[in-house]
Specification:
The complex is a heterodimer of chains A (522) and B (270). With 522 residues, chain A is α/β, with parallel strands linked by helices. Chain A is built from 20 helices and 13 strands. With 270 residues, chain B is of the alpha/beta class. The chains are: A alpha/beta (522), B alpha/beta (270). Chains A and B meet through helix 7 and helix 16 of A and strand 1 and strand 2 of B.
């Protein structure tokens, strides 16, 4: 196997720094909750309803219930403290009570109180059942994987998984596009979300047929696509993975929905939300922990968003930012009980294509990522920054990206599109792109096993340079603290503040009587 | 006698390898199964587009119920190139030093330029290329200009907030980047910005510039902007335009400079 001699001592030191950097965040997580976490708790209990608003839009019941408690300053005790008592007093099941509360027929704060012991006991019972339900859904997903051939290997030994996006805005049209992609050879389908869904502090409801730059992530849309892909999996005899976006203000809710609807991959990265969506850092880091606990139970593979750093910061100069962030992301994932084989750490091939020997540097980065995270299903993202309307040149860039991917043993390869920077992919764009990848992944299948990198050559030296830069960068972050470092543009040349950004008002300190058994069960 | 035919600008046609051959490549998908009938349909459609000598280079099964075609054909139509007129951004090309120099000597104070991706657009690649110090293709970004106070507000800035800030900071120019264009959301957002600007009395005080892969100058004008720039635009081109436009509008100058200009004008009139 092609192998770079990396300074392993530095890798160990980087991991130690990541542990230290994450400590204060872990304390923050353990002492706080958020409106999104509390909404997720209700969703896990089976609350899925929505109330039609005067404008005709559907607004989730979980939002109405949680928001009322927040306004009354009682949410710090956890939604279950009130909701479970409500179930005891009214003898209603969760969904029925939720509807009654959302329609203001029942006021959770005005009910008689059962004893703390009784509430706690009932809460544990409900959460245990919710956990069982998640495990049933997981088993049902894994059953399909067993029925057909499953090409996925976290360590990438079967060659890169072919991953493409659909983004028509209409879930039914997405199904057509997804099925066509599978027939062409795709192994994983990501339904891109409508632009800015990550900034909505609620999850839209029902099947949707209109979106901007993508299709809304709703539980019903998840179901529709899962059903279609299961059908197609059986049709082609190959398991097709479904991906959606578990980031933004509803991060843990999407995790719960994804787990319930049998998704395989979720893009899940607080750092992405902080830097690129201006979501408050405390909010999203706390949300991320709870979402990753659900993800860990359901054994969904997360994808982190470090590739994005290279679209705003120069990819040649800033490789260390990506690696530093991957170390932190890895640590935070472990803290949420995830295992290495679920950590699809992200990076990208985004260097200036006209830079001399650019592929040597790209190979160095991709290969070092593979070696530093040997168990992780590394996610490799295609060139976007230097793409323009020249689809022929663009197709060539993607071919070189595919070659780097197969040579360095990347696990998940998000295919580039010839029409990147023009429009969301047409059926024929995706078809061309898959044909390109299949040709190269097949033709260069064992190339990585045949070549060796020159000792102290350009590739090896570049990798060690990036590694050393990463160590220096993490040392700086450790000294300043992650929040301060982000404010001083440690990543992607973007500055964010601790109390700035969207969703900060949804962060609450946990009260002494905070009740949420999921933190013990997940 | 020349051995090759010269281009006839009155009757311009695409060029393959012989002047006036009209050669064109086409690629499209039909939502029917790849079949002899699908191929015939593709040929007939191509005929209707105004082509002859149609060669189907390939028909591929792109998926169940979808056939993909690559076609080469000769275009029958011609265009009178001498009659073409295009709305273009008219501004002399200046270097960064020249722009700084022009602002210093003719405006006499730093220009305030705001930039943002508006609406829900989160794609900052374009606005960053124009603003960031590093710039784009070797052309430094606006943040590097000594005489420009450049503020990049980043992604997902609402029109209303952008205009409020423009008033507060007394902006001379506002740069808007639009990437997402599904359902023409970019056009809607751009028009809305200008409508608001008009209501707030900003339209004449501030130069409004749009940029993005789907933005053209005529389209920007139609949305009420002063100029539009497409992919590959360099920061110095945008800066040149802003300076030129502001000079044309004769924005209020600092007193000293205003007096100098008056004197110069008087001299001229003599």
């Amino acid at each position: 196997m092609a192998d770079l001699r990396l300074e392993t001592k530095i890798i160990d030191q980087c991991r130690e720094l990541a542990v230290k950097i994450s400590k204060p965040i872990e304390t923050l997580i353990e002492t706080h909750t958020t409106v999104a976490i509390e909404r997720t708790v209700l969703r896990l209990l089976g609350v899925e309803g929505a109330v039609q608003q005067p404008g005709g839009q559907w607004f989730p019941e979980v939002n109405l219930i949680v928001e009322e408690l927040r306004k009354e300053k009682t949410l710090g005790s956890g939604v279950l403290t009130w909701f479970v008592n409500g179930m005891i007093q009214t003898k209603m099941p969760a969904q029925e009570l939720a509807t009654a509360v959302a329609l203001k027929k029942t006021n959770l704060l005005k009910l008689k109180r059962a004893s703390e012991g009784e509430i706690k006991k009932k809460a544990y019972e409900l959460c245990e059942n919710a956990k069982k339900n998640l495990l049933v859904q997981k088993a049902s997903r894994d059953q399909v994987r067993k029925e057909v051939k499953d090409p996925f290997d976290p360590e990438g030994r079967n060659g890169p998984l072919i991953y493409v996006i659909v983004a028509t805005g209409n879930i039914y049209e997405d199904v057509i596009q997804a099925k066509a992609a599978v027939q062409a050879g795709a192994d994983a389908i990501a339904v891109i979300r409508s632009t800015a869904q990550s900034l909505l502090d609620y999850v839209p409801h029902g099947a949707t047929t209109e979106g901007f730059g993508g299709t809304y992530a709703t539980q019903e849309n998840f179901r529709i696509m899962r059903r279609a892909l299961d059908e197609e999996s059986r049709q082609v005899g190959r398991y097709i993975r479904l991906t959606n976006y578990c980031s933004g203000l509803c991060m843990p809710e999407i995790a719960a929905m994804g787990a319930l609807e049998k998704l395989d991959f979720l893009l899940n990265d607080a750092m992405y939300g902080i830097l690129f969506r201006d979501i408050n850092m405390k909010r999203t880091l706390i949300d991320q922990n709870f979402s990753r606990r659900i993800i860990a139970l359901s054994r969904i593979v997360i994808h982190t968003g470090e590739d994005n750093y290279l679209t705003t910061a120069d990819a040649i100069e800033n490789g260390h930012q990506v690696l530093a962030s991957q170390f932190i992301n890895e640590r935070l994932a472990y803290h949420a009980h995830m295992t290495a084989d679920l950590m699809g750490l992200g990076h990208a091939q985004e260097m200036d294509p006209e830079y001399p020997n650019v592929f040597l540097l790209e190979i160095a980065r991709a290969q070092m990522t593979r070696q530093i995270f040997p168990k992780a299903p590394i996610k490799f993202m295609p060139p976007t920054r230097f793409k323009c309307g020249d689809i022929f040149y663009s197709h060539l860039m993607d071919a070189m990206f595919n070659l780097v991917g197969v040579l360095t043993g990347q696990t998940i390869q998000l295919l580039g599109m010839p029409t990147e920077a023009m429009h969301t992919p047409l059926l024929q764009d995706r078809w061309m792109s898959i044909k390109n990848a299949k040709y190269i992944f097949n033709g260069a299948k064992d190339l990585g096993k045949e070549v060796e990198f020159k000792r102290n050559g350009k590739v090896e030296n570049w990798a060690n340079k990036v590694l050393n830069d990463t160590f220096a960068h993490l040392s700086m972050i450790e000294k300043k603290g992650l929040f301060q470092a982000i404010e001083e543009k440690a990543f992607a040349e973007v500055s964010r503040t601790e109390t700035g950004g969207k969703g900060f008002e949804g962060v609450l300190p946990r009260a002494p009587d905070y009740l949420n058994p999921f933190f013990e069960l997940l | 006698m020349s051995k090759v035919t010269q281009v006839n600008l009155k009757k311009l046609r695409p060029y393959g390898d012989i002047m006036d051959d009209g050669a064109i490549q086409l690629a499209f998908t039909l939502p029917v199964e790849a079949s002899p009938e699908a191929r015939e349909a593709a040929v007939q459609l191509t005929q209707k587009m105004g082509f002859d000598q149609i060669k189907v280079a390939t028909m591929e099964k792109a998926a169940q119920g979808f056939s993909f075609f690559v076609i080469y054909a000769r275009l029958k139509h011609t265009i009178d190139f001498t009659q073409i007129k295009v709305l273009k951004v008219e501004a002399p090309k200046r270097s960064r030093d020249e722009i700084d120099g022009t602002i210093k000597s003719q405006i006499g104070r730093k220009l305030i330029v705001l930039g943002a991706c508006t609406g829900y657009d989160a794609h900052t690649v374009g606005i960053d290329a124009i603003f960031n110090m590093k710039g784009f293709a070797g052309d430094y970004g606006l943040e590097r200009y000594q005489w420009i106070d450049a503020k990049n507000l980043g992604a997902q800035v609402q029109n209303e907030d952008l205009l409020k800030l423009a008033i507060q900071l007394k902006a001379d120019a506002v740069l808007v980047s639009k990437v997402v264009s599904q359902h023409n959301i970019h056009i809607r957002d751009m028009k809305e910005l200008i409508q608001r600007a008009e209501k707030m009395g900003l339209k004449d005080k501030v130069v409004f510039v749009a940029g993005g892969p789907r933005v053209t100058h005529p389209m920007a004008l139609e949305c009420g902007f002063d100029a539009g720039f497409g992919v590959g635009t360099k920061p110095s081109e945008v800066a040149s335009y802003i300076v030129e436009e502001l000079l044309k509008r004769s924005i209020p100058l600092p007193k000293k400079l205003a007096q100098k200009k008056k004197v110069r004008k008087q001299k001229k009139s003599k």
